[in-house]
Amino acid sequence: MIYGISLGSNLGDRLGNIEQAIEAIKLLGGKVLKQSSVYESEPWGFKSKNWFYNAVILYESSLVAEELLSLLLAIEKKMGRQRIHIDKSMYVDRKIDIDILFCDSCKHVSPTLILPHPHMHERMFVLLPLQDILPEWKHPTLHTSISMLIKSCPDKGSIRKLLPL
């Protein structure tokens, strides 16, 4: 299976955190097929003086989505992420954030995971890196190209491309 995975960090060595997470993902037994450039974006969904570094990777794995999610959450925890669930709509600064965006063209819904990610089309910091590595990608449920998703994205926050990973 081919997964799209987003990575973000706005605390500490942001680039180093993303690189460390990608190295940990490589150790899960799959293969990183492509990596986007790194983008810097202002926080989305909350106020903070700490801007994010963001990237997206394409990852090939035989793991099913729930297994992969569990392992990604373990990487976050090992890197010092503490998920605080006071309110699901509340976002906070974090050293690392790893999300599964999609798995092939599958649709998956469970109590712990919805694929494709239900908010990916609302976040420019996901769409622009994804376009770097999959310019012809179409959203499996919205049936919309990545270029059209970018044009219609409601996220008007500042974002800039920094460098390739």
Q: How would you describe what is shown here?
A:
- There is one protein chain.
- This protein has four helices and eight strands; from the N terminus they run βαβββαβββααβ.
- By secondary structure, the protein is α+β, with helices and mostly antiparallel strands.
- It has one domain: 7,8-Dihydro-6-hydroxymethylpterin-pyrophosphokinase HPPK (Alpha-Beta Plaits), CATH 3.30.70.560.
- The strands form two sheets. Strands 1, 2, 3, 4, 5 and 8 form a six-stranded antiparallel β-sheet that branches. A two-stranded antiparallel ribbon has the order 6-7.
- Helix 3 runs antiparallel to helix 4.
- The chain starts with a strand and ends with a strand.
Quick synopsis:
The chain has helices spanning 14-26, 65-78, 124-133, 146-152, and strands at 2-9, 31-35, 37-41, 52-60, 97-103, 108-109, 114-115, 159-164. It has 165 residues and is an alpha+beta fold. Strands 1, 2, 3, 4, 5 and 8 form a six-stranded antiparallel sheet that branches. A two-stranded antiparallel ribbon has the order 6-7.
Outline the low-pLDDT stretches. Answer: none
Could you say what the CATH topology is called? Alpha-Beta Plaits
Helical content class: 25-40%
Derived from helix and strand composition plus strand pairing, the structural class reads: alpha+beta
Please tally the helical runs, counting DSSP H or I stretches of 4 or more residues. Answer: 4
Distance between the ends? 23 Å
Q: What series of H and E elements makes up the topology?
A: EHEEEHEEEHHE
Rg over alpha carbons: 15 Å
CATH class annotation = Alpha Beta
The dominant shape is globular
Strands, count: 8
| Largest sheet data | 6 strands, antiparallel
Quickly give the CATH architecture.
Answer: 2-Layer Sandwich
Mean pLDDT: 92
CATH superfamily: 7,8-Dihydro-6-hydroxymethylpterin-pyrophosphokinase HPPK
The figure for the number of domains is 1
